[in-house]
Amino acid sequence: MAIAEIIVIAIAALAVYSVVSMRKPSATDPSRSTEPEKPKQPRVRTVRTSGYAKWVGGGLGWVFGGPIGAILGVALGSVFDGMHVTSSSYQGTARGDFAMSLLVLSAAVMNADKKVVKSELDFVRNFFINQFGEEEGGRLITLLREILKQEINVQDVSLQVGQHLDYSLRLQLMNYLFGIAAADGYFHPDEVSVIETISGYMGISNGDFISVKAMFVKDVNWAYDVLEITSSATDEEVKKAYREMAKKHHPDKVAHLGEDIKRSATEKFQKINAAYDDIKKLRGMN
């Protein structure tokens, strides 16, 4: 399928979503214009969208022509095969970019061990619904099912995500991907390997990768790994490392994306605090 055809299909699907998701303004709606329609002027219909059309439009605003745009275009085409409209428009948003990245990278990790298990799908479904709401989360899952049928070039997709999402959001993505791998109670080596590959191509430092991994794959040194130090560090070095990690992963860094994403970041921040508390107890630090 040529990229031009993918774009047409995606535009068609988004327009349909816009119509389905729009909310008609009531007579008392303050946002409804009271200005009388000018005579003999072409009528311009303004569609007020809410929900998923906004998300997909935001995400595809920056991925058309790239690997993620192609993947999403094919998925949308599968859902809305045969639909046709003449035009649409998009405006990229950090929140939309994050949602679209979640979709494609979720599929890459879930397919890593050549099987998709119910526990993983339930984890992703619950995450999407908790973060984006029942309606939007359900629609994201519909797209995910189509994306899971595709072959994903992890390198190309990860490079594109790294170019368009800031570092704080990329760290959040890593935390989420390890959550998928942990959903069935077993960290399959192929899943961990794919996450490591994604991390590298997204531009995540090796120290940060080890830190996030240690929050899930725990060993005797997990707390030190989370803080990106070794057990030979002095108490002062431990305190300094904690302050640096707390600053790097503070939930306020993603607060502009809304309370739902900030809540997820808070859970990760709590793991950093837990690691620091474990070290303090082990050393008898105040």
- Helix percent band: 55-70%
**Over all CA atoms, what is the radius of gyration?**
22 Å
Principal-axis shape: elongated
User: What is the strand content?
Assistant: under 5%
Number of helices: 13
Helix- and strand-based class? mainly alpha
The end-to-end span amounts to 62 Å
Biggest sheet statistics: none
Order of helices and strands: HHHHHHHHHHHHH
Q: From the structure provided, what is the oligomeric state, counting identical versus distinct chains? A: single chain
User: What's the average pLDDT?
Assistant: 74
What is the total number of structural domains? 2
Low-confidence stretches: 1-36, 38-64, 82-92
Number of strands: 0
Would you give an account of this structure?
The protein is mainly alpha-helical and 286 residues long. It folds into two domains: 1-22 and 49-208, no CATH class; 218-286, DnaJ domain (Helix Hairpins, Orthogonal Bundle), CATH 1.10.287.110. Helices cover 64% and strands 0% of the residues. It is built from 13 helices and no strands. α1 (3-21) runs antiparallel to α2, α4 (94-110) packs antiparallel against α9 (189-202) and α12 runs antiparallel to α13 (259-283). The longest helix is centred in the last third of the chain and has 25 residues, at 259-283. The termini are far apart.
